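#lab-general

N.A. 3:47 PM
ok so I finally got the sequence cleaned up, no stray characters, all 239 residues accounted for. can someone with queue access submit it? mine expired

B.Y. 3:52 PM
send it over

N.A. 3:53 PM
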Amino acid sequence: MGSRGVAPFDQPYFRVLLVFPAFGPGLAALLVAWTRYGPTEVGALLKPLIQWRVRPQWYLVAVAGPVLLLLAGRSISAWLGLSATQSEGRGDLFSLALAAFVLSLFSNPWEEVGWRGFALRHLQARYSALVATLIIGVLWGLWHLPLFFWRDNPMADYPFLPWLVSIVAGSFVYTWLYNSTGGSLLIVTLFHVSMNTVWTAVDGVPVILLAALHVLVALALVLGFGGAHLSRLERVRAG
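B.Y. 4:20 PM
back already:
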């Protein structure tokens, strides 16, 4: 245990604080929405979590997209002879994936309420979808930085800079889904849960390769839909 001498992660009282990376963005968004805009904004912030009336293909993209991306990553990794940061000693992958799925179901909705439901929506009122996504992506990545100092956390073995690139580039997919569905946090959350679960289950994809794949997808979205909205629909904005 321990945190490489940086912070007291080996102390139980400190580990309790690790719930905040998951719940913090949503709680902060609700607090700001309540104090700045009132209870009506709180309702508007939570309602997209059950915004299920979208075209069926978006459900398919949200659930199957991560599967296809990571299976492609594993195939490319095997072809190139690459090895993942954690390719051995991970234990029962099914149990790990099930644990990741359950944890994601509880934590990812809160993340999406904060990052996409509040921050992205307000940033898109001032900036293009491209600029707003870059801001969110960097902040989202840095928000996870403490986990890289937790020695027994799987993320502590990841190379941080490639992982950060992956998160920033992957944020373009989240913005694309969010704007294309008229702000459905349900679809965005399903994608987030699927990505976390499949990433745990599909072994053999190095972080640097995932970063490269995310960059290619982000470029394709920008070129295909334009940086203004990253969608065929107008970007979702506050106000």
